[in-house]
Design goal:
5 strands, 13 helices, single chain, three-stranded parallel beta sheet, Tyrosyl-Transfer RNA Synthetase, 51% helix, Rossmann fold
Length: 357
């Protein structure tokens, strides 16, 4: 399992099919990095239970959907490892160890966690496991000792807490000097590298409500399988507040976030910005249709590949990949756990895991 390539770990929680925000925030980066990096992509199905514990069938279906979406956008199981979280027991063990190193108040102050509690209107009814998932995400990442973690802008705070957990472990159990530079930790005997976040070309794509981040739960998402008709309808709902064609418009609004993200002709983007800002007889509706056409062009090959994976045949392909990759994932994660346990003086018994292919 050794390789000279630097390693990447990132992934998705199965809460439904993936959408346009996932594509430009992370999926495109994953596809582009597969030749240059040793890539591990995680399906965080354990984390899905933090808010959907009463919907196991839905989580199972969403798990299958995510892998199909990955395959449709070009993530390649021949060049990358697909990690099913619940089949890697080292992750759960490391979650427990990291939970002892991160103060409770630090976990609860994680801005991403606070935002999710607010956006999902969880109040104070969320499960004990909900804040634990933030610690678990540290274990998801560090189990595979990556150098980089491709994420959307909203996930950078999670990566920072992961970096804190890695530093703390290396200092407490490996004797790494607290003043050591991050890049020195492994050379000084630390078990874990201090990973860095890598934000995609669009750090945060606003949803079609023009306000919140794109999300299935907020009903403001354009999915990778949406038809042109569906895309056009959803784009038509994007509110800008502009009243007339000859009214100067704000090119920093949500509509122009889409223009810059999906219209790839830079000269055309500049032309639209100039006319819109000047109120030069150009309406929101015209621009929305043009953006919808650009999104449709981007998604057309994804939809076609995704359609091939629908049904029992696609399910069989997904399950074969996950079974085959379970051994590959555990080979790395078990090595990490063994190193961590040795540092913690817990290496009393050696174990080996294997999964039938």
């Amino acid at each position: 399992m050794t390789t000279s390539k630097p390693r990447i770990l990132t992934g998705d929680t199965p809460t439904g099919q993936l959408h346009l925000g996932h594509l430009v925030g992370s999926l495109e980066s994953r596809v582009a990095l597969q030749d240059e990096y040793d890539c591990y992509f995680l399906i965080a199905n354990m984390h899905a239970y933090t808010t959907r514990a009463d919907k196991p069938e839905g989580i199972r279906q969403s798990t299958m959907d995510i892998v199909k979406d990955w395959l449709a956008v070009g993530m390649d199981p021949e060049r990358s490892v697909f990690v099913l979280q619940t089949e890697v027991p080292a992750i759960a063990e490391l979650t427990w160890f990291f939970a002892m190193l991160l103060p409770f108040n630090r976990v609860m102050k994680n801005p991403t966690l606070k935002t999710e509690i607010k956006d999902k209107d969880l109040g104070d009814t969320y499960s004990f496991g909900f804040p634990m998932y933030a610690v678990g995400q540290c274990a998801d990442i560090l189990s595979f000792r990556p150098q980089l973690v491709p994420v959307g802008e909203d996930q950078v705070a999670h990566i920072e807490m992961c970096r804190e957990a890695a530093r703390r472990f290396n200092q407490v159990y490996c004797g790494v000097d607290p003043h050591a530079e991050d890049h020195e930790h492994e050379s000084l005997g630390g078990v874990f590298p201090i990973p860095e976040a890598k934000v995609g070309r669009v750090g945060r794509l606003v949803g079609t409500d023009g306000k919140q981040k794109m999300s299935k739960s907020l009903n403001n998402a354009i999915f990778l399988t949406d038809t042109f008709k569906q895309i056009k309808k959803k784009m038509g709902q994007l509110y800008t507040g502009r009243q007339s064609l000859d009214e100067p418009g704000d090119i920093d609004n949500a509509l122009f976030d889409y223009v810059r993200a999906f219209i790839r002709d830079e000269a055309r983007v500049k032309e639209l910005e100039t006319k819109y800002a000047a109120g030069d007889n150009i309406g929101d509706g015209h621009i929305k249709v043009e953006v919808a056409e650009a999104i449709d062009q981007l998604l057309e090959p994804v939809r076609a590949k995704r359609a091939e994976l629908d049904g029992d045949k696609g399910d069989a392909i997904v399950l074969d990949i996950l079974r085959d990759h379970a051994n590959k994932a555990n080979a790395v994660a078990e090595e990490t756990l063994a190193r961590a346990k040795a540092a913690m003086k817990l290496d009393l018994i050696q174990r080996e895991l294997s999964f039938p292919r």
